[in-house]
Amino acid sequence: MISKEEFLLKAYKLGIIKFGNFTLKSGIQSPFYVDLRPIASDPELLKELSQQLLNLLKKSCYDLICGVPYAALPMATAMSLDSGTPLIIKRKESKGYGTKKMLEGIFKSGQTCVLVEDVITSGKSLIETIEEVEKEGLRIKDIVVVLDREQGGVSLLKEKGYNVYNLFTIEEVVDLLYKNNLLSQEELQNIKNFLKSTPIVTAQVKSSRLTYEEKAALQSHPAAKKILEIAIKKKSNLIASLDVSTTQEVLQLAETIGDTIVAVKLHTDIIKDFSEEYVIKLKSIANKKNFLLFEDRKFGDIGNTQQMQFEGGLYKISDWADLITSHVIAGEDSLKIFDSKVGIITIAEMSSSATLTDENYKKRAIEISENISNVIGCVAQSKLPSSLLLFTPGVNLNSIKDKKGQNFNTPEKVFDKNHTDFIIVGRGIYKSTDPKKEALKYQKSGWEAYLKNISI
Ligand code: S5P
Predict the structure, then answer these.
(1) Rounded distance between C-alpha atoms, residue 293 and residue 241, angstroms
(2) Where are the membrane-spanning stretches (predicted)?
(3) How far is the CA of 406 from the centre of ligand 1 (A)?
């Protein structure tokens, strides 16, 4: 491998940096212009660049490489060939939903992907790529960049928790060129003044999370379509978890807060006085107020047992539940026993401290969920591929944890960080002295967080 300086001088000869007076895309007048694309016209130099970039990543662990389109594509390809790491390709053009994929190549959610970028200015293109890649369930920790124009992009990405490794900063480049008599003292000063005086640009990035309308168009299961339609109609993404112990309390709460929610989530096995009459009453409130019935049974057994638990016993869940939760612990076949009419929500990741649902578990849970047609989404605490709806429990506006291991986030945080679809609120509502007022508060705050999430 040659030195960085030698590499730069060779690349300079190809015309990757020009000095003069240039108008940038942003309208700013710049005394230099950088374009790294010519490097691909010199295969030896491209190979050299690939080695330099791989060297920056020598302490990183990753399963895949992806270049930010288009300029970094040859670089990422060369790195893939050099390192034997599979390449994935991100499309630049927007796709017609449900037809074309945004990421091409073979990958599985949960894998770690390194991003490669040629020049970073505000970080906008990188953030758009990150969103697309993370939406498919891939993890990004490290980003490698050939040249940092020192305009705010690197700090923005670091703030968001990514490691950014850059081969050069623009300042280093001009210093090296000056040292090698390729730049006059005056030009050097001019550029340095420009760098000092140019305002830091903050990337304004359109969120790539899908809207409820877009998600409804993607979903084929009736329960998924229904919950999204209710969300749009009621301007609510709130699921109330009514973890109370009597049928009277459930019915009263359902009646009181029914207008503000998309579903009532239940743990029917904690109700003392369950009866068929209660089910009839609850269904009638659900019809009147337009919300779904969601039994949080968290099935976790072999298929044969789960089937008996779902269809039989006291509760006959299959008779009335629109949605159910199930673990994936017993493997894919155990999930195939549920009636196709019920929407299954798998438990991919739990909200409790020290949960065993680590990254690898989540990755396998997502794979299984994507293979079963009536799985409509997952309970999780981080982003999911856009084919699955994300249901987030552990939401509370007033607490950050309880004393039994539960962790809470605000609606704003779970939308902003995880692009959730539905918030699940238990004690925040049913324990309050005024559940109606509190439910309205969560409805409003969840909806505002969603609107903010789709607009940024
Ligand atoms: O990881 C999880 C999964 C679920 S479904 N963490 C959870 O808290 N839940 C459920 O969400 C939990 O069983 C309870 O019914 C609800 C959270 O209630 P809260 O009172 O903590 O808001």
Answers:
(1) 10
(2) none
(3) 8
- Answer yes or no: is 149 a known binding residue: yes
Note whether 235 and 228 are within 8 A (CB): no
pLDDT digits (tens, 9 = 90+) for 322-376: 999 999 999 999 999 999 999 999 999 999 999 999 988 998 999 999 989 999 9
Known catalytic residue at 434: no
For the question of residue 296 being annotated catalytic, the response is yes
Instruction: Write down the catalytic residue from 142, 148, 296, 421.
Output: 296
d(CA 311, CA 317): 6
The HSE-up count of residue 340 (CA atoms within 13 Å, CB side) is 3
CA geometry: angle at 70 spanning 66 and 74, to 5°? Answer: 65
Q: Return the sign of the alpha-carbon dihedral for residues 355, 358, 361, 362.
A: positive
Q: Are 222 and 393 a contacting pair, CB within 8 Å?
A: no
Spatial strand order in the sheet of 64-67:
103-104, 87-90, 64-67, 112-120, 139-148, 163-169
Query: pTM value?
Result: 0.63
Please give the average per-residue pLDDT across 223-237, as a whole number: 98
User: 427 a known binding residue?
Assistant: yes
186 labelled binding-site residue: no
In this structure, of 10-19, 87-96, 298-307, 399-408, the range with the lowest mean pLDDT score is 87-96
Mutation choice for ligand 1 from 406, 407, 427, CB with most ligand atoms inside 8 A: 406
The tokens describing 351, both together, are 């909200």
Domain extent listing, the chain: 4-197, 212-454
Mean residue pLDDT across the chain: 92
The answer to the question of whether 438 is labelled as a binding residue is: no
Neighbours of 272 (CB within 10 A): 8
Element (H or E) spanning 256, and its range?
helix 247-257
416 catalytic per annotation: no
CA distance 429 to 199: 46
Q: Choosing from 42, 301, 339, 416, which is the catalytic residue?
A: 301
Task: Determine the distance separating the centroid of ligand 1 and the alpha carbon of 240, expressed in angstroms.
Answer: 10
Of 192, 298, 436, 444, catalytic? 298
> For residues 369 and 390, what is the distance between their CA atoms, to the nearest angstrom?
12
CB 443 within 8 A of CB 406: no
Q: Report the nearest-CA residue for atom 11 of ligand 1.
A: 393
Q: What is the CATH number of domain 4-197?
A: 3.40.50.2020
Report the amino acid identity of residue 436.
K
**Ligand 1 lining (C-beta closer than 6 Å):** 241, 243, 267, 296, 325, 350-351, 379, 393-394, 396, 406, 424-428
In CATH, which superfamily holds the domain spanning 212-454?
A: Aldolase class I (3.20.20.70)
